[in-house]
Amino acid sequence: MNIGNTVLEMLKDEVTEVEYDRFIKQLNYNARSSKSDIAIFDAPNQLVANWIKTRYTQKLEQLFELKTSFRVVVKIQAKKGKTGSVKNSATTQTSSSENIRQNTLNPSYTFENFITGASNQFAYSAAKSVSQKPGEIYNPLFLYGGVGLGKTHLMQAIGNTVINHGKNIIYTTVEQFLNDFTRHLHNNNMDSFKSKYRQCDLLLIDDVQFLSNKIQTQEEFFHTFEELRNSGKQIVMTSDKPPKKITGLEQRLQSRFEWGLVTDIQPPELETKIAIIKKKCEINRVTLDNDVINYIATVIDNNTREIEGILSKLHAYAQLMHQDITLDFTKNVLREQLQEKQNSVDIDSILKTVAHELNVKPSEIRSKNRSRIVVYARRVAIYLTRELTQLSMPQIAQYFGMKDHTAVSHTMKKINSLFENDEEFKIKIDELYNKISSSKRN
Ligand code: ADP
Ligand code: MG
């Protein structure tokens, strides 16, 4: 059995039978396109791909790591030809690592598919200008704003435009940049790292807030930045906050990030949200009545990222239950999701409760303190955060001042093994878990 199928088998034990039969079963490991550090799975269409992507990517990556002891990036892709996308040609070749990187551009993240309103008009116009004259106007372009407001979409829209002009582009997250750096360093191959990044015409680097406190990555990124910019190559960055607010960011980087144009994206107005949902329906070929669309727009807060998840859920349920997607049906399907959201806990209150219970200071938990009790408290807090919030491993790592997400997954493994051997420990954690989740509900 190949590694992909082995991992899928392992996943089977970790999800419910229903989840497995409905979704995971539809995945096929694409051995031909996968590489030693990238595992590609094909899903029958974009909806199923999105559904699986948001829920199981991290789990799959953990299972790969468990099985091979290497870190592998998992990609879930829809089989070609199912979406209305125009740029599939950019993603059909998979032979070189160059193309793998280009693959990470979502072909539906285009300017055409981006809905504008007062909240994002300026950022949109700036991105559009940059895509037309890369390296000539705003360099770097720095987009910031809250989660799900379309930063990655806009950034990739620049990429999708520029790629069509035959330019060489790299889209990367800070995390991938660091992985790439470490791998090349490890293989004694720094020249190839340098030339790879420095030969691109457009560097898109997503979520640069994760540079926070990563001295070595900052150092390497600084040199890449300098060389690209000095040779007139375009750099685009996104972040959840403006450069000034990124803690532990070297002064020289902060000031360079502000050299070009720094612009924010605000939460969308209701009409913009409605238009975004309509656009997503169109792209994913889902038909919804206006009352259903309006209802979704009011329940999703500002995080537009939830839309695709909601659409795939509705679509899947409606198909399985042979029902139309009426407003009542929608409310029923989303009830569980809303409940979850109301009950979700914020990381600060987890920190506070754990610190209080274990008699350490919250600041100690977030520090590099290695004393036994603090390490213990940190582990517990990380475990509970992972269980009780929607935060990703890199986000958790950053909050607790850890190096990267592997430290978090290591902690999770550690706690799980403690569970197996120590009944009392498990009871204690359960107690804390209930305490935190019920305090939120009252
Ligand atoms: P961010 O990077 O800011 O967290 P994303 O770019 O990932 O957010 O956007 C989340 C989802 O919402 C994506 O599917 C994106 O296409 C969609 N989206 C956000 N804003 C818009 C918009 N103005 N028009 C169309 N889709 C949008
Ligand atoms: Mg993003």
Strand content: 5-15%
Q: What's the oligomerization state? A: single chain
Rg over alpha carbons: 22 Å
Largest sheet: 5 strands, parallel
In DSSP terms (H or I, runs of 4 or more residues), the helix count works out at 21
Quick one: CATH superfamily of the largest domain?
Answer: P-loop containing nucleotide triphosphate hydrolases
CATH class of the largest domain: Alpha Beta
Fold-level CATH name of the largest domain: Rossmann fold
Span between termini: 50 Å
Order of helices and strands: HHEEHEHHHEHEHHEHEHEHHHHHHHHHH
- Kindly name the structural category: alpha/beta
How is this structure best described in words?
Mean pLDDT is 85; it is low at 81-103. The chain has 442 residues and is an alpha/beta fold. It contains 21 helices and 8 strands. A 5-stranded parallel sheet has the order 5-6-7-4-8, sandwiched between helices. The protein folds into 4 domains: 3-78, GMP Synthetase, Chain A, domain 3 (2-Layer Sandwich); 90-265, Rossmann fold (3-Layer(aba) Sandwich); 270-319; 347-441, Chromosomal Replication Initiator Protein Dnaa, Chain: A, CATH 1.10.1750.10. It has helices spanning 3-12, 17-22, 46-68, 89-92, 97-103, 121-132, 151-164, 174-186, 190-198, 215-230, 251-257, 270-284, 290-299, 306-321, 327-343, 347-358, 362-365, 372-388, 393-399, 405-421, 423-441; strands spanning 28-29, 38-43, 73-78, 141-144, 169-173, 202-206, 234-239, 261-264. Bound molecules: adenosine-5'-diphosphate and magnesium ion. Adenosine-5'-diphosphate binds at residues 109, 113-115, 120, 145, 147-153, 276, 279, 304-305, 308. Adenosine-5'-diphosphate binds next to helix 7 and helix 12.
